[in-house]
Specification:
InterPro entries: WH_DNA-bd_sf (IPR036390). This is DeoR-like helix-turn-helix domain-containing protein. The protein is of the alpha+beta class and 172 residues long. Helices cover 43% and strands 26% of the residues. It has 7 helices and 7 strands. The strands form 2 sheets. The chain has a 4-stranded mixed sheet with strand order 6-5-4-7, with helices on one face. The chain has a 3-stranded antiparallel sheet with strand order 1-3-2. α3 packs across α4 and α6 packs antiparallel against α7. The chain is elongated, with a radius of gyration of 17 Å.
Amino acid sequence: MLESLITSKTRLRLLVKFFVNDRNQSHLRGLADEFGESTNAIRKELNNLTQAGILLKHSDKNKISYHANTKHPFFTNIRDIIRKYLGLDMLLEQILERMGEVGQVVLVGDVSRGIDSGKIDVLITGDNLNQDYIQGLKKRIEKMIDRKVVFTLKNERHEGYGLVLFDNKIGV
């Protein structure tokens, strides 16, 4: 649905890359390799997004890296739209509904790095998690968001890399 509003596939991929997780940053050649596109097409979109103030660029020697401008007035709106586009809002809502004593819900894998590969890896931590519910939930969510979902359940808290969608310790 978002594809009908943002007709440039490159622009949409860049927005996903930088707004699903505001810690993501990259440079032109890395994006070209990741997207499998020419540097010219990506440079054009990076320039447009930078001129609009949506992305910021940072020079370090001869390398320019880009990242989301978290101070932009529309940052939160764009982030929320991108997360809805990926189905993360529905995913979180469904997990918290009847999953048990959820401690954390953390995106790991491609989506946490801003790569929309069609697969979402979700780590759920907590005590007494409802194993039966997660099996039915997986199929239901995959149908709702049109992406493959892989759930990993753990008892202990996750402290590694990932995008924390929910943490009962900090109220995220």
